[in-house]
Design goal:
By secondary structure, the protein is of the alpha/beta class. It has two domains: about 170 residues, Peroxisomal Thiolase, Chain A, domain 1, CATH 3.40.47.10; about 160 residues, 3-Layer(aba) Sandwich (Peroxisomal Thiolase, Chain A, domain 1). The protein has twelve helices and eleven strands. The strands form two sheets. It has a nine-stranded mixed β-sheet, with helices on both faces. Helix 3 packs across helix 4. It is globular, with a radius of gyration of 19 Å. Keywords: Acyltransferase, Cytoplasm, Transferase. InterPro entries: ACP_syn_III_C, ACP_syn_III_N, Thiolase-like. It comes from Streptomyces sodiiphilus. This is Ketoacyl-ACP synthase III family protein. Pfam families: ACP_syn_III, ACP_syn_III_C.
């Protein structure tokens, strides 16, 4: 989906303190052999701060930067992966109550780690559908520290980090332009994240811990894990190509890449293969391996990192790469138009 007049007017992130993998090994939380094999440096840990409160902090910062009053915001979309609070409760309305308020629609997006990019595409379309809608607020937050998730062992090759991010999309102006978002799905691989677990009763109601490693090990799909991994890689590479072609761009036109956070540089090289030999240097490798995989926040916290540390300047284009359970993939192109707004870390004084 191409957007003619959709801008990022505000961008913020809540990034908790880090806990080093060295300490995790010493405490017995993280496997020493895996720590040596992979290259995670640390993980962001928010303690007992609820995910919706993290989202509120990021959202209010993004709103303050954007220049949009609360009355301009026409919709709120909140992306999440893990539990946000009590079951049968609405975190998106809690976030709405503590940010812009009012009676606008508030929607929770449950598309796993692809959620933020999916929410941006939906919010962009919502604004485009009616010219009287000036702005949208998109948030995401996860705290993986609950008793049913072991952030150090729950997912193959990964560590879960806590974070919240927020973006204000504007029809009027912004420091960056959202050029386009493209998406695709591989529903035949949904079982990868389900494995042998029954659909009912849900594991979270019976105290079953989240173990994505075990689910992958019990996967009995039509393709083995190697074939499934190959298909996912091919699908994401095709989506990258389609996103570039739709925007009239070549891989060399992309200055930086805000990708999924991984702890293995070889995995990252395969992920960024369409961008050539220097792709890793254009990514956010060091930042990502200091955070852990932050659910739907990887891409937007990566973009925030690039903006707030002055690593992008006007004229640069950043590609955001998302992937989530489903399997869902999204790609977006963001063009930097001017220095970040006042209030963003790294903004000119």
């Amino acid at each position: 989906m191409m957007f003619d007049d959709l801008y990022i007017a505000g961008l913020a992130a809540y990034l908790p303190e880090r806990v080093s993998t060295q300490r995790a090994v010493a405490e017995g939380w993280y496997d020493a052999a895996e720590a040596e094999h992979l290259e995670w440096v640390s993980v962001a840990v928010a303690g007992d701060l609820p995910a919706p409160d993290m989202a509120v902090r990021a959202a209010n910062e993004a709103l303050a930067q954007s220049g949009h009053p609360a009355a301009d915001v026409a919709v709120l979309m909140h992306a999440s992966c893990n539990h946000q609070g009590p079951d049968m409760w609405s975190p998106q309305h809690y976030i709405l109550r503590h940010t812009v308020g009012g009676t606008i629609p508030a929607v929770e997006i449950r598309q796993g780690c692809n959620g933020f990019l999916a929410a941006m595409e939906l919010a962009g379309n919502y604004l485009a559908a009616a010219p009287q809608r000036p702005a949208a607020l998109v948030t995401s937050a996860d705290n993986w520290g609950d008793p049913l998730v072991d952030r150090w062992r729950a997912t193959p090759g990964g560590l879960f980090g806590d974070a919240a991010t927020a973006v204000v999309l504007s029809r009027r102006s912004g420091f960056a332009r959202l050029v386009n978002v493209c998406a695709t799905s591989l529903p035949e691989l949904e079982e990868l994240n389900r494995g042998g677990e029954p659909l009912f009763p849900p594991g979270c109601t019976t105290g079953v811990r989240v173990d994505l490693r075990e689910r992958a090990a019990t996967y009995k799909g039509s393709q083995d894990l190697v074939q499934a991994g190959r298909l996912m890689g091919e699908t994401q590479r095709r989506l990258i190509t389609r996103t570039l072609e739709e925007a009239g761009l070549e891989p060399g036109d992309i200055s930086r890449i805000a990708h999924q956070f991984v702890g293995d540089e070889q995995v990252l090289r395969r992920l960024l293969e369409p961008f050539g030999e220097d792709a890793v240097s254009r990514g956010v490798w060091d930042f990502g391996r200091s955070m852990g995989h932050t659910g739907a926040n990887d891409q937007t916290s990566g973009l925030f990192h690039l903006v707030s540390t002055g690593q992008v300047r006007p004229g640069d284009r950043v590609m955001l790469l998302g992937a989530g359970a489903g399997i869902a993939f999204s790609c977006a192109v963001v063009e930097i138009l001017e220095p970040p707004p006042a209030g963003t870390p790294g903004a000119p004084v």
